[in-house]
Amino acid sequence: MIVSSVFSALLVSGLITVFLATVQPSAAQVAAHVTAADSIQVQATPTAQSPAQTPASAPPQSPSQAPAAAATPIVRIPPPPPSPEDLGDSLAMHQRYQAAIAAYQKAPQTAVVWNKMGIAYQMMFNVRDAERCYRQSLKLNPHNAQVINNLATNYDSQKGYSAAERLYHKALKIDPQSAIVYKNLGTNLLAQHKYNRGWEAYQRALAIDPQIFEDHGSPQVQNPASIAERGAMNYYMALGCVRMGQTECALQYLRMALDEGFTNPKKVASDVAFAGLRDNPDFKQLLASQQNAKPEQAR
Fold first, then answer.
1. By the 8 A CB rule, do 166 and 181 touch?
2. Which CATH number does the domain housing residue 156 bear?
3. Distance CA 261, CA 13 (A)
4. How far apart (Å, rounded) are the C-alpha atoms in residues 213 and 47?
5. Which residues of the chain have pLDDT under 50?
6. Looking at the domain assignment, is residue 187 inside a domain?
7. Do the domain assignments include residue 51?
8. Strands 18-19 and 40-41
9. pLDDT per position as a tens digit, 29-72
10. Domain region containing 6
11. Separation between Cα atoms, residue 15 and residue 221, nearest integer Å
12. Which pTM value belongs to this model?
């Protein structure tokens, strides 16, 4: 089953983070975890004997003559089959989204299950069914900031930036401490060329979770931004990483911003925001490699 509470999409610029509602372990899974195996040890209940069956008293035996105690029998009890929701979680974790949807459809249709189906459809780029599932989830639980975020990402993936922005603000009214929603809002604003506001949203996200820009290896929802827009997102992510003292993260995003033409080595070298990296050998090498690449591209 999926134990993480989120599907997180970070690292590459323009990617949008989708929440997966927390999965609670079933009773069967808890029992399996407690036993730590597929078997448990039980003691067999002795069978009662009638007086006629009771054996005659035997003469006492010395310790050396006493028979060894019988081993406690082991009774193997197979674990119960997983619930449809648990099965869907496992299939989704292995990116078998169509099979996961089929499993979720057999589960009780709770708000959580509708959200999970929405995510599975979105991972398959089926935005229409993803929206249908998210809205059904919100009918059952209208104040779930995670599902509102997910619906917003579905609009972002179709360049419906204004509608998505409104939903992100709605989610933040419910959960004002969500770093992921702030990060998504920042990406959304940068895609609309609202650079100052996007940078502010990124800073809010970093203040809540300094690791928000790190890759967590989770499924990713691609933002259809242009190369120039992705360059801006990478640049501001690099700024955020520098402010948090994350040099490797900053260099990674800065390299992408340079590759995508949003800035150039000369501007970066003179940018006071990156002054703390000027003595870093990797930073120097990055700028030198970018400068050397320009003449090669011109030939």
1. no
2. 1.25.40.10
3. 14
4. 65
5. 1-13, 21-56, 296, 298-299
6. no
7. no
8. unpaired
9. 433 333 333 323 232 334 344 444 444 455 555 555 555 566 78
10. 1-22+83-176
11. 6
12. 0.70
